[in-house]
Write a structure and sequence with these properties.
The structure holds 2 protein chains of 2 kinds.
Chain A: E1 5-7, E2 10-13, E3 19-24, E4 31-37, E5 44-50, E6 53-57, E7 65-68, E8 75-79, E9 88-95, E10 104-105, E11 109-113
Parallel strand pairs in A: 2-11
Antiparallel strand pairs in A: 1-3, 3-8, 4-5, 4-9, 5-6, 7-8, 9-10, 9-11
Chain B: E1 3-6, E2 11-14, E3 19-21, E4 23-26, E5 32-38, E6 44-50, E7 56-59, E8 62-65, E9 75-77, E10 86-93, E11 102-103, E12 107-112
Parallel strand pairs in B: 2-12
Antiparallel strand pairs in B: 1-4, 3-9, 5-6, 5-10, 7-8, 8-9, 10-11, 10-12
Classes of the chains: A mainly beta, B mainly beta.
């Protein structure tokens, strides 16, 4: 068990560019969550997958954001036409199932939009 | 909607002092409650949890009791160490929210030797 990994750890991009982040969950975990954390705030839920199905999306997830989890393994989060307000830490978590199970968090990807 | 409010930091304590970090919640259903900890440069880790009223979660000397009557889940430790310096997040999750966690803003704890 190598834990949840995220790549890259840091990303600096210019406004208007597209960025993509990757999350590799713990291998046997069927649930995968994306959260966003801004400075001085707690993480805020963005979306989650049960296997390959995306089951819920937060209102924070504008149409510039898209997430996928092909084959129910790793997941990608893409942000198109980035804005300065997208600057944040993007966290991925995985779990064996519903609320009964612990969510294990990755180290996060820190995005800076200049 | 559901929400979590925790005391603002930063909190600075001397080693071996008693720690309390207050957390209250608002929820329409019957949530599970969690404390997560984030050490410098690391990801969030689950510290303890409680799934129903009057449950006490405990780990590494930290404790928190799920109080439905006061909608609270305060974190306590009798004697803090320098290694406890971190940011602590209170969170709730429920069947209604499909397990997505709702976090407080976090409380930064610094423990001085």
């Amino acid at each position: 068990d190598t834990g949840v990994s995220q790549d890259p750890r840091h990303k600096i991009t210019k406004r208007g560019q597209n960025v993509t982040f990757r999350c590799d969950p713990i291998s046997e975990h069927n649930r995968l969550y994306w959260y966003r954390q801004t400075l001085g705030q707690g993480p805020e839920f963005l979306t989650y997958f049960q296997n390959e199905a995306q089951l819920e999306k937060s209102r924070l997830l504008s149409d510039r954001f898209s997430a996928e989890r092909p084959k129910g393994s790793f997941s990608t989060l893409e942000i198109q036409r980035t804005e300065q307000g997208d600057s944040a830490m993007y966290l991925c978590a995985s779990s064996l199932g519903d609320i009964s199970y612990e969510q294990y968090f990755g180290p996060g990807t820190r995005l800076t939009v200049t | 909607g559901d929400s979590v409010t925790q005391m603002e930091g930063p909190v600075t304590l001397s080693e071996e002092a008693f720690l309390t970090i207050n957390c209250t919640y608002t929820a329409t259903g019957y949530p599970s409650l969690f404390w997560y900890v984030q050490y410098p440069g690391e990801g969030l880790q689950l510290l303890l949890k409680a799934t129903k009223a009057d449950d006490k979660g405990s780990n590494k000397g930290f404790e928190a009791t799920y109080r439905k009557e006061t909608t609270s889940f305060h974190l306590e430790k009798g004697s803090v160490q320098v290694s406890d310096s971190a940011v602590y997040f209170c969170a709730l999750g429920s069947w209604e929210s499909q397990g997505n966690l709702i976090f407080g803003k976090g409380t930064k704890l610094s423990v001085k030797p």
